[in-house]
């Protein structure tokens, strides 16, 4: 997969044009002009120039003008039109529309006095420019100083461009860096974020960088000031300290685990060579810890051991200095990579004794992140030996299939490529709901300030009015600033101090359910779902766009070799398939392949004498003459030659004589072997054999023998190569050995029922050069010396770029046609070609190639240039097609995602035809979809205008090269994104990893984070888009675990995305919403009673509650109900959410947490607070003998205790029962704990409360025992709670009766499983808005008066859809239609009558 998704070659820049060419254009085409005159500054001109990619020579100043011209062009409505229509009515309507103009951006400059092009700036440097340059220089110097100082504080060292050190095994102590004169870094690594000394300072800074914590710290500081706080001095500081301590402890525990992992990693042991000179010079292998390894050490690594640092491979016990490493921990790829030591070092430095005499100097590039390139040289034995990535073993790899190797340590610790790649800055992700939460917090802050200011004003007014009549108000009074801050302290906890900490606990519990969901467990791979973050759980329930990779994500990434094309004929590779009888095969061969009647007759006579079948005499002897092919110096067996034939002339093939085989006569590869066996020394025989030889040679697979099965097993660099190598083995071409210099093949004759076990041939092919696959070339070539001494280049290509260097003949045309057919079937294709190279030409080219290998600068570019030089004048060999099977359940999952309002964009590196076919297979493209093909010639403005009012399902298909052109123009990119947002799906083929990330980032920024994006992939090339999206999902597939490790959540199959979003995502969104609203509600309900009490306390700022009871409310008496609803709430059951995808839209539309709902909850809290305060205070005047004190009002603690008790009841019942759908044993238990806990607290606290002067205001001792024995207390509580909750309960029932939501409807339906089952069957009929007057076009095959059977059973979802009357309107092909919203009366009556019938059956109209 990683090989598929490469960088796309950039096209030529066409923005720059000369003046003369622009003047020749017709001025009537100029429809818009933008003038830039002297009023624009130079900076403005530079900005315009950079943004619009203009050539400097085309920008004018002073008296000249710069114009942007838009030239119209016509929309191509032919077969090559960028819009492909499946629906015939839409095709006709759109093609009949008038031709619309497009806008092509061009530039020109006109000068009336000259036709020459003037430079951009034509003036002498002024004082202003000198000052600006001086300021710029000084600012750059300041920025560099700040950056250096910051790096010094953080312990970072400046970047080092090169590394040079002398190699001396006798050297004692660390080697010094010649550039910095300091030792190179040690080999210890640190993945932890903190040390013992900086943990607390960094954590305090991190905690108080949150606005909420800073706000509460400010409030706690105000409380400490004497006489300012009526609620005690530490009621905010203590809870704040507890919550911050919990957050710090959690972060500390996570970092402690990282320290333990680092300790285990750094203390692993490795073997180094230490030099000793007691009685002679010799080297002894010594075990040391990894952290003690230093640059310049000589290391011995044995099979199955980890590589402890970045090493230079000096020698290997493998053949010719070859070793194999596994890089799964580094790049996620499970295949083995091959490395080879230099011949000079491998032959001379292969033992401890020889290494003890090793002297030299190593020069290389400095540490960098590039895993795939290394440039440097080694001064050894008087030579400069050039080094490449082929001699480098990276830390994090494992030595495989090699006894042992010796290496030189180059980079250690944090300078290794593994650690350099691990230190990237990743975008910090925050939940989408946090934006609304921040707005809510600001609203509450404004309310608190307003309430405090109002109470301050009322207090001042009351004192002013009552100062003369009330003697106790005379004298010194508090200033209004003190009063204001006192009220601010009283009301500050309306913003819940425990919100973020308890939300973290809730989300941790949610990921436990995700990780342990048995329905997302894959038994085949023993892989459960895994959550790597808890921060963005609720985003899973709000996804609007899904960006998915194809290979390994939608498909299995199990490559199956399916078809091949050779000599203009396709063959199906099916070992278990039915073969065509040999005689029938040869009879068909007389029509489609180059063989005559006489040849067939002679073959039949010699090979099948027992068969008396005769062929008709109408065979044409002149179809294609059969030529016996002989070669000098060829190595042949009895029946076949392994040397390629000379190029045949196109004239020997008659296109008219080539007839396609019917469906009953599909040839497979067993038939191919039969033809090779029966047609020796023919053109077909030679070409077919040579193609099979190319398949078995043009790859980098490594054979291994399985001792148990005595079979050859291949280690491949990609699944494609693995499939091709195994197919070659199935066809008798078995690679038995591979070294750096040659490949050994065993070639068997595998014709069924005719093969001879002794009829095999062993041949060796010398490898001269390997031109490796690159993302730019997208092809691979290998140059061999064949057994007859000739030099041949074998090339295979993934793209169509190879067509331009092929000879054009009939076989080439047929093969290219087969490639397109394979791609249309959704297969991954490879085109094979070859070329024989003359000895002199090869020697000249190889000399340049070897020089390029020794370059340190532009090495890759030079190699690609030389590859293009040798890969020319190629002759086609054949083509292969490999199937990447769709994963189980992918089409059904994408269908459900669409019904849930989620748009799916597929981003892949495959060809356009393959991507479109996979789009059809996985249901991204529907039968009735409008397909919009965008290439470099497409007019986006016209397309956007043309499809402005079209409501049908639209799918965009674009390639990476076209996207590269579009992204260079901001205007075109904006138009493209608008068109993409308008369409239902998008397929981007030939996309590079950076382009995948670009599309995700563009949609995220275009929508201003108003919609949630999700990216899902399985390979290392998907990491960029996974990290760019709001939610990143990794598939634990066959390309390794790197994507999964970099993701937020990981699943094993794409179909599990349905469970993750529809169930866990929706539940998390509902739970977090209700938790947040419940937390805000309980704080408003409780702390607002303090403000209401001021009406009865002359706005004195007196607290209604005792200070520690006040501080304990959030944690002890109201926390469990909101936590339970945040962890266990299920508004609908698992199966219901899975079967009815449209219920997912509740999160996309923010229907559970928005400003409107927040105000509704706060309005309820205010009403409850008013009821809870007013009723107990009013009732005290009616009940006799209720007062504690004779003849006086109730003591303030007693009144506060009654109101507090009512609040505990109201909040617990409201959250646990009125706002929660599922009443479980957990909710009952926590409600009981909250209420009983309050009373138990009162019993204990009434005895434990201290008596001192400061607490005289609150007479706590024994109050609850005395009050609790009176019926008036319980009557007051019961009446207050009832009066507060019953209106809310009645309002909820009334709302459900008048206008119930879909959720409430299905909640009722879940009470009757049979009824719910019938509803789900109706829901899956998949009919859409027929009463919407738009341009939908439907076809009807015939009137169907069949009544819907409510008891009907369907075997599959497809049968359900096809059985629906409405389904006939969508998928039938009759000519009766609805055009432009004009519905035929009979058909409309039938449609709406059927919908009415469904509604009577209990279905809800969509």
TrEMBL record:
This is Phospholipid-transporting ATPase. Residues 1044-1299 form the P-type ATPase C-terminal domain. Its EC number is 7.6.2.1. It is a multi-pass membrane protein. Its cofactor is Mg(2+). ATP binds at residues 549-551, 721, 773, 796, 828, 908-910, 990, 996, 1021-1022. GO terms for cellular component: plasma membrane; trans-Golgi network. Belongs to the cation transport ATPase (P-type) (TC 3.A.3) family. Type IV subfamily. It comes from the Eukaryota. The active site is at residue 549. PANTHER family: PHOSPHOLIPID-TRANSPORTING ATPASE DNF3-RELATED (PTHR24092:SF174), PROBABLE PHOSPHOLIPID-TRANSPORTING ATPASE (PTHR24092). One of its GO terms (biological process) is endocytic recycling. InterPro entries: ATPase_P-typ_cyto_dom_N, ATPase_P-typ_P_site, ATPase_P-typ_TM_dom_sf, ATPase_P-typ_transduc_dom_A_sf, HAD-like_sf, HAD_sf, P-type_ATPase_IV, P-type_ATPase_N. It comes from Cetraspora pellucida. It catalyses: a 1,2-diacyl-sn-glycero-3-phosphoethanolamine(out) + ATP + H2O = a 1,2-diacyl-sn-glycero-3-phosphoethanolamine(in) + ADP + phosphate + H(+); ATP + H2O + phospholipidSide 1 = ADP + phosphate + phospholipidSide 2. Keywords: ATP-binding, Magnesium, Membrane, Metal-binding, Nucleotide-binding, Translocase, Transmembrane, Transmembrane helix. Mg(2+) binds at residues 549, 551, 1018, 1022.
């Amino acid at each position: 997969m990683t090989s598929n998704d490469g960088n796309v070659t950039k096209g030529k820049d066409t923005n720059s044009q000369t003046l003369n060419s622009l003047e020749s254009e017709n001025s009537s085409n100029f429809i818009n002009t933008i003038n830039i005159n002297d009023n624009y500054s130079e900076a403005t001109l530079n900005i315009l120039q950079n943004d619009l990619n203009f050539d400097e020579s085309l920008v004018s100043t002073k008296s000249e003008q710069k114009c942007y011209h838009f030239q119209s062009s016509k929309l191509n409505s032919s077969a090559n039109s960028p819009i492909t229509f499946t629906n015939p009515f839409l095709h006709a309507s759109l093609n009949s529309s008038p031709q619309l103009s497009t806008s092509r951006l061009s530039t020109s400059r006109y000068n009336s006095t000259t036709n020459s092009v003037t430079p951009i700036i034509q003036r002498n440097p002024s004082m202003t420019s000198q000052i600006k340059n001086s300021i710029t220089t000084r600012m750059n110097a300041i920025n560099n100083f700040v950056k250096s100082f910051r790096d010094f504080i953080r312990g970072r060292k400046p970047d080092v461009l090169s590394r040079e050190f002398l190699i001396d095994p006798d050297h004692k102590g660390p080697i010094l860096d010649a550039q910095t004169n300091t030792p190179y870094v040690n080999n210890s690594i640190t993945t932890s974020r903190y040390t013992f000394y900086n943990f607390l300072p960094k954590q305090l800074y991190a905690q108080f960088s949150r606005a909420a914590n800073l706000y509460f710290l400010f409030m706690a500081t105000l409380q400490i000031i004497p006489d300012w706080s009526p609620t005690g001095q530490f009621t905010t500081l203590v809870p704040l300290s507890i919550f911050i301590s919990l957050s710090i402890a959690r972060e500390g525990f996570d970092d402690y685990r990282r320290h333990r992992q680092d300790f285990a990693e750094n203390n692993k042991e490795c073997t180094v060579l230490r030099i000793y000179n007691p009685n002679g010079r010799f080297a002894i292998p010594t075990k040391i810890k990894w952290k003690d390894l230093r640059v310049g050490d000589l290391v011995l690594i044995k099979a199955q051991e980890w590589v402890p640092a970045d090493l230079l491979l000096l020698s290997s016990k493998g053949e010719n200095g070859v070793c194999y490493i596994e890089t799964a921990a580094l790049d996620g790829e499970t295949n083995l990579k091959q490395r080879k030591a230099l011949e000079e070092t491998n032959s001379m430095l292969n033992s401890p004794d020889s290494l003890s005499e090793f002297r030299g100097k190593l020069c290389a590039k400095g540490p960098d992140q590039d895993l795939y390139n290394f440039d440097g040289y080694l001064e050894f034995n008087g030579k400069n030996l050039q080094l490449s990535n082929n001699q480098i073993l990276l830390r994090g790899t494992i030595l495989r299939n090699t006894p042992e190797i010796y290496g030189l340590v180059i980079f250690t610790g944090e300078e290794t490529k593994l650690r350099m790649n691990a230190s990237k800055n990743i975008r910090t992700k925050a939940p989408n709901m946090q934006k609304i939460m921040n707005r809510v917090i600001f609203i509450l802050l404004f309310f608190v300030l307003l309430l405090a200011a109002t109470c301050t004003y009322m207090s001042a007014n009351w004192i002013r009015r009552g100062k003369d009549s009330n003697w106790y108000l005379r004298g010194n009074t508090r200033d209004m600033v003190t009063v204001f801050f006192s009220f601010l302290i009283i009301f500050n906890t309306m913003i819940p101090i425990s919100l973020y900490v308890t939300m973290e606990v809730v989300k941790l519990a949610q990921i436990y359910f995700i990780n342990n969901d048995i329905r997302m467990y894959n038994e085949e791979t023993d892989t459960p779902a895994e959550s790597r973050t808890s921060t963005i759980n609720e985003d899973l329930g709000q996804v609007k766009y899904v960006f998915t990779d194809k290979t390994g994500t939608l498909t299995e990434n199990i490559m199956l070799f399916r078809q091949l094309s050779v000599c203009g004929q396709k063959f199906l590779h099916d070992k278990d398939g039915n073969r065509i009888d040999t005689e029938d095969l040869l009879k068909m061969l007389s029509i489609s392949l180059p063989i005559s009647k006489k040849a067939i007759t002679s073959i039949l006579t010699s090979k099948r004498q027992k068969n008396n079948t005769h062929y008709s005499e109408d065979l044409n002897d002149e179809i294609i003459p059969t030529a016996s092919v002989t070669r000098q110096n060829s190595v042949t067996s009895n029946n076949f030659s392994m040397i390629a034939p000379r190029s045949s002339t196109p004239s020997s093939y008659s296109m008219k004589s080539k007839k396609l085989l019917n469906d009953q006569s599909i040839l497979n590869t067993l038939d191919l072997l039969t033809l090779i066996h029966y047609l020796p020394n023919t053109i077909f025989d030679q070409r077919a054999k040579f193609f099979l030889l190319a398949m078995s040679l043009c790859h980098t697979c490594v054979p291994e023998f399985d001792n148990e099965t005595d079979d050859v097993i291949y280690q491949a660099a990609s699944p494609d190569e693995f499939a091709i190598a195994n197919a070659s083995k199935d066809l008798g071409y078995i690679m038995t050995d591979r070294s750096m210099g040659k490949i050994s093949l065993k070639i068997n004759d595998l014709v069924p029922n005719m093969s001879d076990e002794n009829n095999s041939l062993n041949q060796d092919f010398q490898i001269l050069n390997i031109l490796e696959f690159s993302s730019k070339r997208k092809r691979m070539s290998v140059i061999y010396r064949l057994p007859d001494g000739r030099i041949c280049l074998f090339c295979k290509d993934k793209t169509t770029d190879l067509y331009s260097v092929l000879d054009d003949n009939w076989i080439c045309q047929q093969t290219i046609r087969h490639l397109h057919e394979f791609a249309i079937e959704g297969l991954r294709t490879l085109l094979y070609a070859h070329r024989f190279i003359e000895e002199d030409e090869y020697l000249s080219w190889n000399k340049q190639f070897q020089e390029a290998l020794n370059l340190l600068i532009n090495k890759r570019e030079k190699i690609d240039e030389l590859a293009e030089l040798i890969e020319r004048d190629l002759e086609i060999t054949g083509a292969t097609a490999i199937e990447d099977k769709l994963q189980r359940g992918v089409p059904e999952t994408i269908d459900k995602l669409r019904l849930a309002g989620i748009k799916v964009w597929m981003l892949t590196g495959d060809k356009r035809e393959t991507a479109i076919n996979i789009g059809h297979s996985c249901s991204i493209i529907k039968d009735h979809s409008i397909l919009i093909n965008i290439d470099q010639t497409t007019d986006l403005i016209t397309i956007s205008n043309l499809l402005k009012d079209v409501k049908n399902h639209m799918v965009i298909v674009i390639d990476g090269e076209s996207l590269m052109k579009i992204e260079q123009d901001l205007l075109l990119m904006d138009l493209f994104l608008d068109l993409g947002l308008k369409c239902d799906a998008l397929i981007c083929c030939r996309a590079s990893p950076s382009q995948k990330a670009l599309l995700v980032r563009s949609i995220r920024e275009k929508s201003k984070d108003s919609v949630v994006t999700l990216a899902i992939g399985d390979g290392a090339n998907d990491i960029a888009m996974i990290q760019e999206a709001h939610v990143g999902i990794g598939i634990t597939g066959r390309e390794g675990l790197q994507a999964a490790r970099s993701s937020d959540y990981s699943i094993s199959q794409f179909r599990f995305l349905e469970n993750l979003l529809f169930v866990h995502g929706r539940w998390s969104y509902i739970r977090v919403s209700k938790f947040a609203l419940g937390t805000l509600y309980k704080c408003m309900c409780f702390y607002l009673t303090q403000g209401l009490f001021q009406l009865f306390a002359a706005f004195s700022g007196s607290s209604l509650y005792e200070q520690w009871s006040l501080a304990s409310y959030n944690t002890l008496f109201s926390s469990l109900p909101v936590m339970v609803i945040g962890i266990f709430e299920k508004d609908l059951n698992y199966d219901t959410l899975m079967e009815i995808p449209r219920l997912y839209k509740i999160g996309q539309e923010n229907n559970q947490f928005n400003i409107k709902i927040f105000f509704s909850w706060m309005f309820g809290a205010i009403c409850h607070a008013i009821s809870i305060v007013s009723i107990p205070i009013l009732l005290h005047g009616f009940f006799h003998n209720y007062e504690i004190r004779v003849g006086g009002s109730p003591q303030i603690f007693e009144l506060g205790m009654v109101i507090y008790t009512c609040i505990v009841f109201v909040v617990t019942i409201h959250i646990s029962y009125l706002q929660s759908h599922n009443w479980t044993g957990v909710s009952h238990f926590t409600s009981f704990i909250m209420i009983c806990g309050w009373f138990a607290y009162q019993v204990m606290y009434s005895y434990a409360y201290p008596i001192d002067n400061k607490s005289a205001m609150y007479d706590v001792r024994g109050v609850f025992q005395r009050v609790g024995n009176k019926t008036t207390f319980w009557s007051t509580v019961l009446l207050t709670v009832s009066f507060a909750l019953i209106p809310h309960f009645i309002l909820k029932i009334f709302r459900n009766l008048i206008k119930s939501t879909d959720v409430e409807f299905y909640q009722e339906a879940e009470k009757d499983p049979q009824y719910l089952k019938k509803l789900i069957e109706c829901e899956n009929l998949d009919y859409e808005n027929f009463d919407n007057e738009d341009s939908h076009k439907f076809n009807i095959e015939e009137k169907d008066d069949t009544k819907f059977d409510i008891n009907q059973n369907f075997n599959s979802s497809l049968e359900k859809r096809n059985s629906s009357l409405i389904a006939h309107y969508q998928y039938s092909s009759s000519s009766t239609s609805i055009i432009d919203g004009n519905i035929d009366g009979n058909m409309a009556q039938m449609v709406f009558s059927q919908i009415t019938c469904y509604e009577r059956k209990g279905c809800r109209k969509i």
